Amino acid sequence: MTPLRRSAGLLALALALSACDQLNTNSAGINDRTVALGQKAQQTITVPFSGSWRITDYPSWIRVSTQSGTGPVRFSVAAVRQDATPVTADQATLTGTIKVSWTSGSGSGATNGTAVWTVTAQQFELTGRLVQPAQVTGLDVITRQEVRTAPAPAARGVIVKYRAGGALTAQGVNQSARTLGRERLTAAGLAVTRQVTLGSQSAAFDVSDVPAALRALRSDPNVEYAVPNVVLRPQATLATPVTPTDQFSPLQWAYPLMGYGAVWRDMESGAYSKPVTVAVVDTGVRFDHPDLQGQLWQPGEGAMDVIADTTNGDGTGADTDPTDPSTPGRTAGSHGTHVTGIIAARWGANTGVCAGCSPSGVVGATYKANVKVLPVRVIDASGNATEADVTLGIRYAAGLPVTIDGVTFKTPHPAQVINLSLGGAISATDAQPMCDAIAEARAAGALVVAASGNGYGTSPYYPAACDGAVSVASVTLSGASAPMHSPFSNAYPQVQLAAPGGADPYSGAKFNGGTFNGAAYPDMILSTSWDYVKNAPNYESEVGTSQASPQVAALAALMLSKGVTTGAEDTVRRLRETATDLGTAGRDDQFGFGMINAAAALNAPQVSSGLGVRVQSSRGLSFQPKLDSTGAFRAFLGEGTYRVTAGSDVNGNGIYGETGETRDERTAALSEESPAVNLGDLTPR
């Protein structure tokens, strides 16, 4: 078992080849050409030629069936339009070039050359219009613009309350506050234009001179109080999102994407008070990292190293100190420290900051919630873990006793949530010990969350694919209002949820808008780590399902801490029900039930009121067509099935029409047979 990181391998795309198109040229060479696909998926090209030829270059969205040959040039060209469609979906025609190198003749009479063939492909068209929930015409409706910044009107009068007994029952006769108050005000020379009984001892009076009325009423010893009848106004329903101020927090784009600005505002109320422990079963952790102080259960408080092999990097066997150790020549950071920081890095100024270290660093999802991390070390300093140690780590984290080398260990702080950012492409049979441990952990009340794998394919990774585990896939920013599937993230039937894990580091994707030292920051997950060369704390950017899994673990812990849920079963159910459905409608192998939505899962307050449209393909890609002043959009897209969601955004994450938000959703299929689809009016309700 190893921490899940980038691995090689890409899915092959099968291409259907069909119709033939003849392009004529002379046999002495191959000339430049234009290949116009129109809206066809593919075209077969035949060019008479005597000699050898080879295709040397073509764009990634074009597929060719054959790349070299002798004699006539014959191959099929296919266009995978989605691969070339910009996020803005505003390019009606795609253009690319195929370079063909050729040799005619032999010996001293041989002739060489290169032909450039320009390929054009017409996009398909999807149109519609976003409209407000109500569209009414008429002449007898007046719209008034209220200016909320103007001062409130003056008080309209006074409210008086009399003491029980006293004047109300003077001389044994019951009198009303309305009668007594009016008499007092009239005697003071004040005109009462209206009076209302509020209760058995209180009444309200409309008077023009409020200060004089208050003086008259307050001079009566039988009056308990007299106050102005002030004017109140409707208040805005939007809360202010919380934005952390830690030095590197602006680069932590994953939290806003999940709606944490609203969650952290909700946390200010103190409602997240139930104690929750999240076990990070990983490489161990650096207890001396300043950004993790006070966030961890320490050695002696339940932290545990279950690795019995004394060559594991720390020179000892199993013990209660899961520090991720320094070893000679170690240069990689601390994986367990990185995962832990995503969950629980502390906010604000750090204590015991080393020279040259950040004074505040990053933030974790759990902020002020009563959540602590239990470090359990199962991965050695070389990045390897045995299945036996992972099995022990899961059982120990759940509060079950484990015996190692004759010594029995049991944590005093069993975890309600266990995170496993590790795994491998092993068989279900070989994974059975881990799956058994997960079943035991679930029976003990723990929710087990695991990374789905970084294999760029569809193979199930274990322990994520075990029954009882919540397998988490990775999503990343797309430049559109909805995220997309990270290409490295494995897709298979056991995937249940998705969370931000970042983009392929070699893709160059930089949609988050942040800069670091003047350069655009890549779409990676920034968290706490350790510099083993300098033996000092640092912060590291990583990508992978290892980073997505703790996002789910952190949210599950917050749900339990607030009391939104009470155990593993209802927590998983609510995570699914509130997730943002991406890709194909309903559960799919890329996203599971969707990307977790922290604001919806935790019933966080509304912090924004935007309205917009998102377009997603069944392949997991996202597009953002521009809306004109009337709400209409026109998207140029490739062949495929698309979901168009129009809706509101109340949690400030820029994704429209999530759980708890107004929405109107349509599905459209674009193809040669159906090149243009008009969805009509989309009305979020």
Any key phrases for this structure?
14% helix; alpha/beta; single chain; flat; 685 residues; eight-stranded mixed sheet; five-stranded mixed sheet
Describe the structure.
This protein is an alpha/beta fold and 685 residues long. The chain is 14% helix and 29% strand. It has 10 helices and 36 strands. The strands form 10 sheets. Strands 16, 17, 18, 21, 23, 24, 25 and 26 form an 8-stranded mixed sheet that branches. A 5-stranded mixed sheet has the order 3-10-9-5-7, with no helix packed on it. β9 and β10 form a beta hairpin. The radius of gyration is 33 Å and the shape is flat. About 6% of the residues have low confidence.
- Summed over residues and divided by their number, the pLDDT gives a mean of 90
Helical residues, percent: 10-25%
Structural class: alpha/beta
Radius of gyration: 33 Å
Q: Outline the biggest β-sheet.
A: 8 strands, mixed
Give the overall shape, derived from the CA principal axes.
flat
Ranges where pLDDT stays below 50 over 5 or more residues in a row are: 5-27, 134-150
- End-to-end distance, in Å? 48 Å
Oligomer: single chain
DSSP strand tally: 36
What amount of the residues lies in strands?
A: 25-35%
Number of helices: 10
What's the gist of this structure?
With 685 residues, this protein is α/β, with parallel strands linked by helices. Helices cover 14% and strands 29% of the residues. The longest helix is centred in the C-terminal third of the chain and has 18 residues, at 545-562.
Outline the fold blueprint:
Layout: E1 2-3, E2 20-22, E3 33-38, E4 42-47, E5 52-57, E6 62-64, E7 68-70, E8 73-79, E9 93-104, E10 111-122, E11 124-130, E12 157-162, H1 177-187, E13 194-197, E14 202-206, H2 210-218, E15 223-228, H3 254-257, H4 260-267, E16 276-282, E17 304-305, H5 335-344, E18 371-377, H6 387-397, E19 402-404, E20 407-409, E21 417-420, E22 422-423, H7 432-443, E23 447-451, E24 469-476, E25 484-485, E26 495-500, E27 515-516, E28 519-520, E29 525-531, E30 536-542, H8 545-562, H9 568-578, H10 598-601, E31 610-617, E32 622-623, E33 632-637, E34 640-649, E35 663-670, E36 676-682
Parallel strand pairs: 2-4, 3-10, 11-36, 16-18, 16-21, 17-18, 21-23, 23-24, 24-26
Antiparallel strand pairs: 1-22, 4-8, 5-7, 5-9, 6-8, 9-10, 11-33, 12-14, 12-15, 13-14, 19-20, 24-25, 27-28, 29-30, 31-32, 31-34, 34-35
